[in-house]
Amino acid sequence: MLPFILLNTGLLFRLGQLLGGIRFGYWLMPLALLDPVMAGQHILVGPDTVLVAFFLLATLGILEQRKILLLLGVFGLCVVSMRGMMTAGAIFLWQMLISGKSWATWLKQKDVAALFSAFVRLSIPFLPGFLFAGWFLWWHWSTTGWIGYHPGSPWAPTFERADTGQLLRNILIVGWRWLDFGRVFVWLALFGLIGKSVLSKQNPLRDDIVFRNLLLLLLCLAVFLTPSSVLLKNVSAHRYVLPGFLALSFLTFRLLATASMSARNRVIITVFLVIALAFGNRWIYPRGIAMGWDATLAHLPYHDLRKEALKYLDRENIDFQTVGSAFPNLNTGENLLLNGDERRFADKDYATNQFVFASNIFNDFSEADYVILNKGWVLMKRLEKAGVWIEIYRRKE
C-alpha cells in the first residue's frame, strides 16, 4: 500500500496547489488524509487506496488538461475493481459536461460533424480503460457465468434487491454515511461558505469555473456511486463512495481558498475542519449500532487486543474450533497476519459452540446475541482499550 499512499499524498499536494494556490494549497493534504474513511483505508490492505490513487490521477488530468494523466488514471480505475469502473464512468460524464461549452451552439446549428469530432476527441483518453473493462467483463462472464457476485458467494444476500422498506432505510443510511465521522462539519462549512458568497455583492462563485467544475464532479460521482447503495440490500459501506467524499473536500477547500475573508480566518476554519475530521476517527457508536469500522482509525486497538485474546485462549488450551465468532475474525492467522497459523474460529452457533469470541468490532453480533450470552453464558475474559473491547464467553454447565 505504501507506494499508493505516497502517490495519494503527492497528488493531493498538487491538487491543493491547483485549487488553493501556493500558500494555502498544502492544507488540502491534512483535510483529505485525516478524513476517517481515507485514513482507515490507508492502514488496511485493500483496493480502495489504489482506487483513490487513480481517481486523483484522473481528476488532476482533467483539471490540468493533461491527457496522459487522465488516460493512466482511467485505465487504472478500470483495472482495480468494478467500483473503479463506475468511478471512471462518472469521470467520463464529468469530462463531457465541463467540456461541452460549444455543444449547445452545435446542436442549435445541427453541426453533427463538430459534435462527433468533439466527442471522439474527448473520449480518446478513456478508450483504453473502457476497452479493457469491456473485455474483462465479457471474459469473466463467459468463463464463470457471473459478474460481481454469484449465488454461492457469502456476500450474495447483500446484493439482493431492496424492497420498499429497505429502500427507504438505505436512503437514510446513505445520508448518514455522508455525515458520519465528522463529515457533518464539512457540509456545514460548505453551505455556510456558499451562503456567504451568494449574499455578498461580488458573489465570487458566479465567475468561479473551477468551483462549478468541482460541483459537477461531486454530482457525477453521486449519480454513479449512489444507486447500488440504495437499490441493493446491503451495499452501503463508507468506502464505496470514497471518491465522492474526496470531491466534497475539494469543493469545500476551493470555497475556503477563494472566500472573501482574511487569511487568518481561512486558516482557522480549515484547522477546525481538519481537527473535526481527525476526531471523527474517535466516533464509536453504542453497542448494537453497526458502524463502518474499516472507515475509521478507531479499530486500531482491536489488533493488539486480539493478540492478547489469542494468548489467553492458548493458555487455557481452548481449541479454536470450539470457539464461535464472526467476521472479520473467521479467517486463519496465515491469511490475516501471514504468521503461518492455519487455525480458524468456527462460525457463531450457540447450539454447537462451547465458547464465543465477541467484540464491538463485529457488526454481526446484535443486541439479541448479547441477551443470549448474558443469560446462558459466562464471561471469562474482557479486554478493552480506547473504546474497543473483546469478550470471551463460556457456555454455562
How much strand? 5-15%
Name the strands of the widest sheet in spatial order: 2-1-3-5-4
Q: Return Rg in Å.
A: 24 Å
- Helix/strand structural class: alpha/beta
Which range best describes the helical content: under 10%, 10-25%, 25-40%, 40-55%, 55-70% or over 70%?
Answer: 55-70%
Describe the structure.
The protein is α/β, with parallel strands linked by helices and 397 residues long. The chain folds into two domains: 2-280, no CATH class; 293-395, no CATH class. The chain is 61% helix and 7% strand. The protein has 17 helices and five strands. The protein has helices at residues 2-24, 28-33, 36-42, 47-63, 67-80, 82-98, 103-109, 112-123, 127-144, 164-179, 183-199, 209-231, 242-258, 263-280, 300-315, 333-337, 367-376; strands at residues 323-325, 346-347, 355-359, 377-385, 388-395. It starts with a helix and ends with a strand.
Short note summarizing the structure:
With 397 residues, the protein is α/β, with parallel strands linked by helices.
Any chance you could write out the topology, listing elements then pairs?
Elements lengths: L1 H23 L3 H6 L2 H7 L4 H17 L3 H14 L1 H17 L4 H7 L2 H12 L3 H18 L19 H16 L3 H17 L9 H23 L10 H17 L4 H18 L19 H16 L7 E3 L7 H5 L8 E2 L7 E5 L7 H10 E9 L2 E8 L2
Parallel strand pairs: 1-2, 1-3
Antiparallel strand pairs: 3-5, 4-5
Q: What brief labels describe this structure?
A:
7% strand, alpha/beta, single chain
